[in-house]
Amino acid sequence: MGIGWRPEIAGYVEHLPGLRFVEVVAESVHDVLPPGLETLLSRGVTVVPHGIRLSLGGAEPVDPARVEHLAAAAALLGAPLVSEHIAFVRAGGVEAGHLLPVPRTRESVDAVVANVKRTQAALDIPLALEPIAALFDWPDDDLDEGAFLTEILNRTDALLLLDVANVYANALNRGTDPLALFSRIPLERIAYCHVAGGSLHDGVYHDTHTAAVPQEVLDLVASLCSLHRPPALMLERDGDYPPAAELTAELDAIAAASGYPAVTR
């Protein structure tokens, strides 16, 4: 069991007894680590840097300086792997400020594969790729999500960061069965999973990370763990942080869905 490390909950995370790993936003890691992260490392808790700005899904090559920063963050943390999104965040020098969905076309597969390989060349540890939650799909896709993701993973030999909340959000917004994706992707490539909450507005589910994990997502976690050995699972929270007891209850609910011990043990 793990949790996303954020400065606002650093004190809480630092003292969780059953915590095995945390994920930190790679772009926030610099030469001097925050004291909370140093304490976790001294406890033997694994810290994984999670990139949000490489733009692996962009048509342009990834920025070498950003790739170097990701590699340096991993080295500083002694991380066993790093992760990033299958998304684009910039084009023509314009920053979107958001993770945007990649068209599921053959050309996009080639672009993502090229950028993943450029990134892997600068790393001496594995890279895990996260499919994002999207509010829309581009028209005229060549591939469904399962085929798109599987081809990228196979051609790059990358690992998979599966966000179970993203699977739920995409299925709800598309009107599809979230369980169907599990049979279309290589579950054996999962490095770890995100679990998070969101909110429904005007019939559209937004993956906000600011609400409690809904029961539907916990049910998906249980289904995933029934199909494949329980992976490492991580609570992702990015605002509206509740009291410590509520965070612990969320972590324990995720653990219960997967069969793991409670984090309070």
The count of DSSP E runs of length 2 or more, i.e. the number of strands, is 12
Task: Outline the biggest β-sheet.
Answer: 8 strands, parallel
CATH topology (fold) name: TIM Barrel
The sequence of SSEs as H and E is EHEHEHEEEHEHEHHEEEHEH
Mean pLDDT score, rounded? 95
As residue ranges, the low-confidence spans are none
Pfam family, one: MbnB_TglH_ChrH
InterPro entries: MbnB/TglH/ChrH (IPR007801), Xyl_isomerase-like_sf (IPR036237)
Protein name: DUF692 domain-containing protein
Organism: Winogradskya consettensis
Give a brief outline of the structure:
The chain is built from nine helices and twelve strands. With about 260 residues, the protein is an alpha/beta fold.
Write a structural description.
With 265 residues, this protein is of the alpha/beta class. The protein has a single domain (2-258), classed as TIM Barrel. It has helices at residues 10-14, 35-42, 64-77, 106-121, 145-156, 164-174, 178-182, 215-227, 244-258; strands spanning 2-4, 21-25, 46-50, 82-86, 88-91, 94-100, 127-131, 159-163, 190-195, 199-201, 204-206, 233-235. Helix 8 (215-227) runs parallel beside helix 9. It is globular and about 50 Å long. InterPro entries: MbnB/TglH/ChrH, Xyl_isomerase-like_sf.
Topology:
Layout: E1 2-4, H1 10-14, E2 21-25, H2 35-42, E3 46-50, H3 64-77, E4 82-86, E5 88-91, E6 94-100, H4 106-121, E7 127-131, H5 145-156, E8 159-163, H6 164-174, H7 178-182, E9 190-195, E10 199-201, E11 204-206, H8 215-227, E12 233-235, H9 244-258
Parallel strand pairs: 1-2, 1-12, 2-3, 4-7, 7-8, 8-9, 9-12
Antiparallel strand pairs: 5-6, 10-11
Helix pairs in contact: 4-5, 8-9
